[in-house]
Amino acid sequence: MMQQPTYSLRQLVIYFLKLGTWGFGGPVALAGYMHRDLVENKKWISEEDYKEGLALAQLAPGPLAAQLGIYLGYVHYRILGATLAGLAFVLPSFLMVVALGYCYTRWQGIPLMQAVFYGVSAAVTGIISISSYKLIKKSIGPNIPLICICVVAATYTAITASESIWLFLLAGVGYWLFKHPGKLLSRNAAGVFFLPLLTDIYRSSNSGKLWDICWFYMKAGAFVFGSGLAIVPFLYSGVVKEYGWLNEQQFMDAVAVAMITPGPVVITVGFIGYLTAGLQGASVAAFATFFPCYLFTVLPAPFFRKYGKNPGIKTFVDGITAAAIGSITGAVIVLAKRSLTDLYTAAIAVVVAVLLWRVKNLPEPLVIITAAVAGIAIRYFLQ
């Protein structure tokens, strides 16, 4: 029997609206925020349910943070909860990128945005480094095999700056075999290998720009594995090389906008869609990207809910979770390489990390706003 929730659907929707508004840092930070807020602080979601959601989000294509949020909405409120949580999470950042798209097309260029990103990205590095540490301590603990999996995944992500679904699957199977040597996977456990069939996509010939936008972004949402910036190479090959919707500079500005706005990094598709075909283009691009990930979450969710407590599947999920946390930790290193470019940014990251370590319940919106102001001040007055 499903455990009765200790929170209302309205409270859940409000939480995801806030996370979508203030949740900077992309999937690395957002996954940590959800664990901290919903599992540790509010205790709305159990550790097991969170692990199941994180494992499913890693196995399925599409944006990790959005899928995790959708799954957590499904835990107690099923389809309605998943739908409203996903919409609430994505809507704030979508409205922001549309507004930024309007400003960009009206005044051209984003030097002020880049100055903001200069400070915010450094602060986010400090935020997610603390979040990653707490996630490791809470979810892995002193378990040596899981620590080894975490280290391997972190090293792979740090070196390649990418994620691999095969690494997650290998981690799950390897840990399962370690815990249950000599056994074959049960029929129930076999279903957990949720891999969509990758097929060649036939695209209809000239049928209008909006249809092209819809079909292209549907492929991006359905067939790109990995989180956050993993979708960027696919977008580049399409919007710059194949269709020519954006030039090189516009595309780089779109990526920058995605990184300086809160919510899922993949919302950059809204900005690109706006530059391509206005508000209609932004809406079609966002819907086409996120709808497949919604389906890839709610369709297998009943299986995870039904069989997630099975010892064999639980072991498999634990292995994937360790690899996922390792990838999050490795992504901290990748982000640090990109954002900590001088002594100023390094100082911002260290100060933020120390403050979050020492000061409980420090409002992160205040941290982000302060870092943005600091970034503008440094860029315009000290450099």
Automatic annotation (TrEMBL):
MF annotations from Gene Ontology: chromate transmembrane transporter activity
Protein topology in the membrane: Multi-pass membrane protein
UniProt-listed InterPro entries: Chr_Tranpt_l_chain (IPR014047), CHR_Transporter (IPR052518), Chromate_transpt (IPR003370)
Membrane-spanning parts: 12-34, 54-72, 79-100, 112-133, 145-178, 214-236, 256-277, 284-304, 316-336, 343-359, 365-382
Keyword Transmembrane belongs to the record: yes
One of the Pfam families matching this protein, by short name: Chromate_transp
Keywords for the protein's UniProt record, in alphabetical order: Cell membrane, Membrane, Transmembrane, Transmembrane helix
A cellular-component GO term for this protein: plasma membrane
Signal peptide positions (record): none
KW Membrane (keyword) present: yes
Compartments where located: Cell membrane
Family in the record: Belongs to the chromate ion transporter (CHR) (TC 2.A.51) family.
Protein's recorded name: Chromate transporter
Species, as recorded: Chitinophaga jiangningensis
Lineage of the species this protein comes from: Bacteria, Pseudomonadati, Bacteroidota, Chitinophagia, Chitinophagales
